[in-house]
């Protein structure tokens, strides 16, 4: 990660330390040893490596996925480049959405010191204890600003994402195409979703 980045490491990476310890306990081999085994004897593609680790070596799904990713050179916190992900997300035809994103980012970080922003490839989730909101550049001209509002009935600009029925945290969204659409209502729902996450 770049120095002085405003972004944080996703919570999933915090599990890596535990995975490292448990892998040695469960298999009597370290991650480095498993990577050598996978590269020498396993299939070349990540998906097939996962299946091979499960069928031939008794790995659970999460451990198989983690070791297969690491064997392919990915999956580690040292490879996480959130600034690069955001730059890629808002480049080319979506570059015009960057000012909207930057404004939403500033609003989220202004909610409290406990806010963490952890970009992924296609979305930027905002965390408190869990994801409470997310930015998704859905088209070249629109960001869908999503909120974790549980079973709240959509009112005003809020649109249901169907997330509640699917078990997703993001249950509502507001489409934003220009800066002036980030109004009191948008700011209010961001605050509500942030405060609701404190109760989880």
General description of the model:
The chain has 2 domains: 11-78, no CATH class; 82-198. It has helices at residues 11-14, 16-27, 31-41, 46-57, 61-71, 82-89, 98-109, 163-166, 184-198; strands spanning 116-117, 124-127, 131-139, 142-147, 159-160, 172-176. The protein is α+β, with helices and mostly antiparallel strands. It is built from 9 helices and 6 strands. The longest helix is centred in the last third of the chain and has 15 residues, at 184-198.
Nutshell version of this structure?
The chain is 44% helix and 14% strand.
Mean pLDDT reading: 93
Low-pLDDT segments, ≥5 res: none
Count of distinct structural domains:
2
Please report the total strand number as a whole number: 6
Question: Order of SSEs, N→C?
Answer: HHHHHHHEEEEEHEH
Instruction: Characterize the biggest β-sheet.
Output: 6 strands, antiparallel
Rounded radius of gyration (Å): 20 Å
Secondary-structure class: alpha+beta
Tell me the span between the first and last alpha carbons: 29 Å
Shape: elongated
Strand content: 5-15%
Helix coverage percent: 40-55%
- Count of discrete alpha- or pi-helical segments spanning 4 or more residues: 9
Strand order of the largest sheet: 1-2-3-4-6-5
């Amino acid at each position: 990660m770049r120095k002085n980045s405003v972004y944080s490491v996703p919570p999933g990476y915090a599990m890596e330390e535990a995975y490292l310890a448990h892998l040695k306990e469960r298999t009597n081999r370290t991650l480095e040893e498993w990577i050598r085994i996978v590269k020498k004897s396993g299939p070349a593609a990540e998906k097939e490596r996962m299946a091979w680790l499960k069928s031939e070596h008794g790995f659970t799904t999460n451990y198989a996925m983690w070791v297969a990713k690491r064997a392919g050179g990915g999956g580690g916190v040292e490879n996480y480049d959130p600034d690069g992900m955001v730059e890629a997300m808002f480049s080319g035809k979506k570059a015009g959405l960057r000012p909207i994103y930057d404004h939403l980012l500033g609003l989220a970080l202004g909610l409290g010191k406990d806010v963490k922003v952890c970009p992924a490839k296609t979305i930027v989730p905002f965390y408190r204890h869990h994801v409470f909101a997310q930015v998704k550049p859905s088209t070249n001209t629109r960001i869908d600003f999503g909120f974790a509002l549980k079973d709240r009935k959509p009112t005003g600009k809020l649109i249901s994402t169907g997330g509640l029925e699917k078990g997703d945290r993001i249950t509502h969204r507001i489409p934003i195409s220009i800066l002036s659409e980030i109004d009191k209502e948008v700011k209010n729902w961001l605050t509500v979703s942030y405060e609701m996450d404190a109760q989880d």
